[in-house]
UniProtKB/TrEMBL annotation:
It comes from the Bacteria. Residues 51-282 form the ABC transmembrane type-2 domain. One of its GO terms (cellular component) is ATP-binding cassette (ABC) transporter complex. Belongs to the ABC-2 integral membrane protein family. It is a multi-pass membrane protein. PROSITE patterns: ABC_TM2 (PS51012). The lineage of its organism: Bacteria, Bacillati, Actinomycetota, Actinomycetes, Pseudonocardiales. The chain crosses the membrane at residues 52-75, 95-120, 141-162, 168-190, 202-221, 255-276. InterPro entries: ABC2_TM, ABC2_TM_bact-type, ABC_2_transport, Nod_factor_ABC_transporter. Keywords: Antibiotic resistance, Cell membrane, Membrane, Transmembrane, Transmembrane helix, Transport. This is Transport permease protein. It is found in: Cell membrane; Membrane.
């Protein structure tokens, strides 16, 4: 072999080694970077379409207007009249209702990304699949925060909602966001468990409506019939509503706040574990 051929072969070997070294040495982006990038992508999708933003903000306002007028007569019942207006009793429950609706949309959004092939493309990349799930729940938590703030502003300006103070409202909004984020994991787990949108929709409504109506959302638990009273007493949504209502209206929170946070933490942990396991198995 000539001297020129030996030198050329040597350079080629060095190039191959350098290339392999970079390939082997590259560890990919960090999990925090993956979560940040995927969260911003979901937010751009959510807020990039003005029609989606408009109807997303209109939905809780319509819900609040309807419930405040249809159930206004409940404001005279014992246990509600002390709130000086049914809107003061209803508004905290509406915040939880908005959180439940947004959590349900988290599952629908995840299922849509699976169907459109976006999740399939992410599977071919060197990223953590768990970061995909975390990004989905975080972006929906931001969207929930915007919806909650708009709903409170409308309630104060249009419906004469009278919260006790700014600090209590901020704490109530924070608890609502935490509650919605925790429930979002349940619906994301459902989305990774089954693959049909129709099934997802049916299960979501079965989960959502009993939790909301068999709780202290629209009337006091003491005014309910016997068996529904028992269900409402053990319903975790009741504790979230009671804690948010107490924070908004400056009433004693009691142990409802600790119970709500504990139940949200348990729900989020169980949902995250199940969603991550199902997500790894999904093909």
């Amino acid at each position: 072999m000539s001297r020129h051929a030996l030198r050329t072969r040597g350079r080629d070997d060095d190039t191959v080694q350098l290339y392999l070294g970079r390939r082997v040495g590259w560890a990919g982006s960090t999990v925090s970077t993956q979560i940040r990038v995927l969260t911003l992508r979901s937010l751009r999708t959510a807020f990039g379409d003005y029609r989606l933003v408009f109807f997303g903000l209109l939905q809780p306002v319509v819900m609040l207007l309807l419930f405040s007028q249809v159930f206004s007569g409940i404001g005279n019942l014992p246990g509600v009249v002390e709130y000086q207006g049914y809107i003061n009793y209803l508004m905290p429950a509406t915040l939880v209702n908005i959180a439940m609706t947004t959590a349900m949309s988290s599952g629908v959004g995840m299922l849509t990304e699976i169907y459109t092939g976006f999740i399939g493309r992410l599977r071919t990349m060197p990223i953590s699949l768990f970061s995909v799930l975390v990004a989905r729940t975080l972006s929906d938590a931001v969207r929930l925060a915007v919806q909650v703030v708009v709903a409170i502003a409308v309630a104060v300006v249009v419906l004469d909602f009278t919260p006790a103070g700014t600090g209590g409202v901020v704490a109530a909004v924070a608890l609502t966001i935490v509650f919605g984020w925790g429930m979002g994991w349940v619906f994301v787990a459902l989305a990774t468990w089954q693959g049909k949108p129709e099934t997802m929709q049916a299960i979501s409504f079965i989960v959502m409506f009993p939790l909301m109506f068999a709780s202290s959302a629209y009337m006091p638990v003491e005014a309910m019939p016997g068996w529904i009273k028992v269900v409402s007493t053990v319903n975790p949504v009741t504790y979230a509503i009671d804690a948010i209502r107490a924070l908004c209206l400056g009433k004693p929170v009691g142990w409802a706040l600790a119970a709500a946070i504990g139940l949200v933490a348990a729900t989020a942990t169980a949902g995250a574990v199940i969603a991550a396991r199902n997500f790894r198995r999904t093909r």
